[in-house]
Amino acid sequence: MSDTHASSVAFVRETAIEPAPPPATETGLIKWVRENLFSSTMNSILTVLSILAVYYLLTLLLPWIMNGVWDASSIRECREKLDGATGGCFAVLAERWHQLVFGRYPQDSYWRPMLAFVLMFAAFAPVLFSNLPRKLLIGTALFPFVAYWLVWGGSVLVPVAVLLGFVAGYLVYSRLVDQSFAMGFVGGVVAAILFWWASGFVVTEDASFMSLPAVESRDIGGFMLNLILGVVCLSVSLPLGIALALGRQSSMPIIKFFSVIFIEFIRGVPLITLLFVANVVLAYFLPPGSNFDLILRVMIMITLFASAYIAEVIRGGLAALPRGQYEAGDSLGLDYSQSMRLIILPQALKISIPGIVNVAVGLFKDTTLVSVISMFDLVGMVRGPILASTDWNGVYWELFGFAALLFFVFCYGISQYSQWLERQLQTDHR
Amino acid sequence: MAMTDTAPARTDANISDEIAISIENMNKWFGTFHVLRDIDLTVNRGERIVICGPSGSGKSTLIRCINALEEHQKGKITVDGTVLSSDIKNIDTIRSEVGMVFQHFNLFPHLTILENCTLAPIWVRKTPKREAEETAMHFLTKVKIPEQANKYPGQLSGGQQQRVAIARSLCMRPRIMLFDEPTSALDPEMIKEVLDTMIELAEEGMTMLCVTHEMGFARQVANRVIFMDEGQIVEQNEPEEFFNNPKSDRTKLFLSQILGH
Ligand SMILES: Nc1ncnc2c1ncn2[C@@H]1O[C@H](COP(=O)(O)OP(=O)(O)OP(=O)(O)O)[C@@H](O)[C@H]1O
Ligand SMILES: [Mg+2]
Questions:
Q1: Of A355, A177, A360, A345, nearest to A249 (Cα)?
Q2: Taking Cα atoms as reference points, which of B209, B207, B208, B217 lies closest to residue B186?
Q3: DSSP secondary structure code for residue B238 in this structure
Q4: In what order do the strands lie in the sheet with B74-79?
Q5: pLDDT in tens, B89-134
């Protein structure tokens, strides 16, 4: 305090006391722990129990992982190296990774599915992220044909002919659709089929043109097969599911009837039954000697299965929209397809995202069921060739743990994406 | 609403002899329930008509029949020279000429205000996007909310949403506007802003059919007030006559109920 003021005024504050740090109980970690872990007796007990449980699990898991043997040629060698200590025999993953991931795919061609896998991300990007330029969707449309050619090989003419058939169908459709939708649709389908039939001659004529070594469907396996089945079936079943959901709401009795019958029938049958049908029963109906690819048959079944579920999820979304939305679209003069595409579906699909993701994740995991009809997907590979071999008979934990981890990574990714998407689409109460 | 009787003089010069809507002997049933009975109504171009009546009397159903949101079973409706049939193309044509404003706004919540206004012009009228946006801004300015153009409906107040709904209809440049209780879902302080917008529209000579219980609005802008009960048009008259000398007992009862307190 200075003298000048001290004489005239009783008290003058010239320096402020430094702000004191809050008591330790109010800051950072300690505060958080008190509030979140020990806020009540019950909470404290639960916290302690959880810590004990985590500790117990780690004491089991950590040595198993840390002591793991990565370099051995059989389970016996693993055991010798471990010499009685706990430890995983991860050598099986190191030795058999190519079977787990690619099945019996020719080793010198691994670059082909890998390239297709990388391209897949590029192809999905404009679909998943709407802020990317729309022109990239052309790449998305071409991707299935490129991917087919890369994975299955053979002449490039086959996928090109299929693609051109779609283009021809679309051109005819867009010409006729002005007159009536039904005419355009039928015309388009007929044009595409005619084109495919005609191009069949050209393709068989010159089967070696720009061809990659062909790979048999039965050699495609491992996690790659799960991915192919999951991605293809989901991509096809989503539009199919939308169509079925709209069909079920349709005012046209025949369309409505068939949609309901289809959905109810498919939902009432276990997927595994459908897979057996694909595997065995379909063979009786096909002309003998016709080689209707098993993977294709399975894809059709899984797609039908998923589309019925997706249709029901989307129907829920459609039902959640107030009738006023339909009426507003109608009163502005939008026609049926416009109001569906621009008003109803964007909102209904947004509501349905959690349900669709649920179906997607479930479906992706269900692709492992194909191991039951002796296809060698990831689980089929583990159960079949690997566990049955004398070298690796008995390494369950490592193999199934690896399978679980792979599936978890992908499913978690899907779920994270969907949550991000929901936040992006949140426009009601920002 | 506090709206005085000394309202600005009605611009009756706007009314032409041309017929905008003609409804002849129209009947409608919901199942076996006879909602509209023998409705006859002619609306000239530029006329502003207010429809009132007790709840359930069929007011909404009547104006929804005009743009085919409800299908009528008997009789003939002619809108702007086009006879309403069940042909979808014909219905879409009429709908794009007739604007409609709903009680609950029915804006599209996933689109911005601007996109709400440009959607139909772009897809139905095939207007280039730039031009549609200019038109939309013009009408948003007119309803006095151009600054909200890039927000979403959920971020606006009820009154603002209803004005957007009006602008959205106007962007289609309709020749007739239908209003179904546009202010009855609004808080009192927001009613005025919506009514002001509607009054402005009326003064410009828009043909309007308006279901409302805002009697101040009826006195100020209507050429004709129609009273409906049990699916019938019971009485119609100029507003002054209608309010001061109601003819039928039902009208008197209705008026005493809504004006009495
Ligand atoms: N979709 C429908 N199906 C069956 N009955 C209906 C339907 N819509 C309306 N109604 C009935 O038709 C009658 C007239 O309904 P409307 O909505 O036209 O009445 P309103 O005069 O507009 O009444 P409010 O003032 O309450 O809006 C009512 O009795 C109603 O219950
Ligand atoms: Mg009503």
A1: A345
A2: B217
A3: -
A4: B33-44, B19-30, B74-79, B82-83
A5: 889 889 989 999 999 999 999 999 999 999 999 999 999 999 999 9
pLDDT tens-place string over residues A115-142: 999 999 989 888 888 888 888 888 888 9
Tell me how far the alpha carbon of residue B40 lies from the centroid of ligand 2, in angstroms.
19
pLDDT digit string (tens) for A82-107? 887 888 888 888 888 888 999 889 98
SS3 content of chain B, % helix, strand, coil (to 5): 40, 25, 35
CA of B231 to the centre of ligand 1 (A): 10
Cα–Cα dist B199/B163, whole Å:
12
Q: Is B51 helix (H, G, I), strand (E, B) or coil?
A: strand
CA distances from A343 to A148, A336, A347 (A): 35, 10, 7
pLDDT band for position B5 (50/70/90)? Answer: very low
Identify the residue whose C-alpha is closest to ligand 1 atom 5.
Answer: B30
Residue A16 region, left (φ>0) first, then alpha (ψ -120 to 50), else beta?
Answer: beta
Q: What percent of chain B lies above the pLDDT cut of 70?
A: 93
A327 contacts chain B (CB < 8 A)? yes
d(CA B128, CA B110): 22
- A147-198 residue pLDDT tens: 998 998 888 888 888 898 999 999 988 888 777 777 888 888 998 888 888 8
Residues of B in contact with A346 (CB under 8 A): 110
Question: Taking the C-alpha atoms of A100, A412, A242 and A152 in order, what is their torsion angle to the nearest 10 degrees?
Answer: -20
CA-wise closest residue to A189 among A169, A171, A174, A161: A169
Question: Model ipTM?
Answer: 0.89
In CATH, what class is A93-105+220-430? Answer: mainly alpha
pLDDT (0 to 100) of residue B261 = 54
Taking CB atoms and an 8 Å cutoff, what residues of chain B touch A342? 119, 123
Kindly tell me the number of DSSP H helices and DSSP E strands found in chain A: 20, 2
Share of chain A above pLDDT 90, in %: 37
Q: Would you state the structure tokens that stand for residue A225, as one six-digit string?
A: 């097969």
Which candidate from B102, B123, B152 shows the least CB-CB separation from A334?
Answer: B123
CB B49 within 8 A of CB B218: no
First to last CA, chain B: 12
What count of other Cβ atoms lies within 10 Å of the Cβ of residue A353? 16
Amino acid at residue number B19: I
- Residue that is written with structure tokens 């009163």 in the block: A331
Write down the domain spans for chain A: 24-62, 93-105+220-430
